[in-house]
Design a protein that fits this description.
Layout: H1 2-23, H2 27-37, H3 43-69, H4 73-100, H5 110-120, H6 124-152, H7 156-184
Helix pairs in contact: 2-3, 3-4, 3-5, 3-6, 4-7, 6-7
Length: 185
């Protein structure tokens, strides 16, 4: 009887743990919700900062993966540059978020994690091509958001941050295109 009671308790605990895991929201959603509850900011501040932080986290993780899996030395160097540059940009963004009393995501959101996992599952022969495709896509999206923020954002600090980092994002995109062209030869 004690064994049966122990098994039932164990099953109930496992079920409760499983339910809690399914209810857990991703880090990006949690940051947005936290910022929505704060009355000291407007939604534009939160949206840009959370999106920029999320993109930065992804670029760092993709860069780490690129350093491990890339076949070409030029691509490994690019991946290291992604880690270094986006980690530095993320630190500046953290300072800005602290100043604005904004919450940033602490880990990849579901969509970003899915992109990372998809790339991680590529075989080594296809990795370089797919990595460059993802990096081009991500940087094009980042550039659009940073251009919009640098030109039209209502918050001067965010506008300055976006304008400061826009040339770096453009340089990254140019590098991706040059590497893609070189690898096609």
């Amino acid at each position: 009887m004690k064994k049966m009671s122990l098994y039932l308790t164990l099953i109930m605990l496992l079920g409760a743990f499983s339910f809690c895991n399914r209810q857990q929201k991703d880090s990006v959603d949690l940051a947005k919700e936290s910022n929505d509850r704060k009355e000291v900011l407007n939604e534009d501040q939160s949206d840009f900062v959370v999106q920029a932080a999320s993109a930065g986290l992804l670029e760092v993780e993709l860069g780490k993966l690129g350093q491990q899996m890339a076949q070409h030395n030029r691509l490994k160097k690019f991946a290291k540059m992604m880690v270094d540059d986006h980690a530095k940009m993320s630190e500046e963004l953290k300072e800005l978020a602290t100043k604005k009393q904004l919450t940033l995501p602490g880990s990849l959101g579901e969509e970003q994690q899915r992109k990372l996992n998809d790339l991680r599952e590529q075989n080594r022969q296809k990795f370089d091509r797919r990595y460059l495709e993802v990096m081009e896509e991500e940087h094009e999206n980042d550039i659009k958001k940073f251009e919009e923020a640098s030109e039209n954002h209502k918050d001067a600090d965010i506008q300055t941050f976006a304008a400061k980092h826009l040339p770096l994002l453009r340089a990254h995109l140019d590098s991706v295109k040059l590497i893609r062209a070189a690898l096609k030869k």
